[in-house]
Amino acid sequence: EAGVTQFPSHSVIEKGQTVTLRCDPISGHDNLYWYRRVMGKEIKFLLHFVKESKQDESGMPNNRFLAERTGGTYSTLKVQPAELEDSGVYFCASSQNRVKAFFGQGTRLTVV
Amino acid sequence: GEDVEQSLFLSVREGDSSVINCTYTDSSSTYLYWYKQEPGAGLQLLTYIFSNMDMKQDQRLTVLLNKKDKHLSLRIADTQTGDSAIFFCAESDTGYSTLTFGKGTMLLVSP
After folding, report:
1. Is B59 helix (H, G, I), strand (E, B) or coil?
2. At CA B104, angle to CA B15 and CA B91, rounded to 5?
3. How would you class B56 by CB atoms within 10 Å of its CB: exposed for 0-12, middle for 13-18, buried for 19 or more?
4. How far A104 CA sits from the closest chain B CA (Å)?
5. Residue B24 in contact with residue B5, Cβ under 8 Å?
6. CB A8 within 8 A of CB A68
7. For the segment B82-97, what is each residue's pLDDT rounded down to a tens digit?
């Protein structure tokens, strides 16, 4: 069974540019989460989808971040325009029963 | 808000037992988790414990939960060099499924 897949694994962009991260959850998992780890800090929750609906987006830092999950399958997280403080590792996770969440390998975003 | 604290670093010798500790503040925590991150890899769910349990054992891993003191520990028996990784403690609240993580404990196992 394929795990959670994230793309790209690394991205280096200039301040002010746009970046789109993609997450493919485990097939059949209705719950999809985005988390972020900024250097030296905790892994922080960003938002939670149930199928295509946003269940909780309380962790989204500001309106430069836009997450979508059209059709309830894969999800994208767009940062526009990117700022230096957006650098970090973005993790996606999926869950079938909300008890066990399986994480992807993460996307390391560097904004220069 | 919720807070999860862990020591940042632990060094042990191969064959010894490792004990990684974690404290949390949310009294309504329902599930407590240990995740492992190896270099260059994602977060791997190692084990989890429901808040009405005080111990869970899975092969070399033993999780102990002291709910009164809000203290969670992960014991790894017969630690191997391949166990070197960052271990994250996390909790989730009743009725929610989002995770609150600690900063992670880097375990270094020397031969």
Report:
1. coil
2. 110
3. middle
4. 5
5. yes
6. no
7. 999 999 999 988 655 7
Q: What is the reported pLDDT for B59?
A: 94
| pLDDT (tens place) for every residue of chain A, 112 residues total | 679 999 999 999 999 999 999 999 999 999 999 999 998 789 999 999 999 999 999 999 999 999 999 888 999 999 999 999 999 999 999 998 878 899 999 999 999 9
Tokens of A49: 């989808």
Nearest CB to A56; choose among B88, B98, B103: B98
> Tokens at residue A25, please?
């959850």
B97 interface with A at CB cutoff 8 Å: yes
Encoding tokens for residue B87?
Answer: 């271990």
Q: Which residue of A has its CA nearest to B49?
A: A99
| Separation between Cα atoms, residue A103 and residue B42, nearest integer Å | 6
**A90 CB burial (10 A radius; 0-12, 13-18, 19+):** buried
| C-alpha dihedral sign at B42, B43, B46, B47 | negative
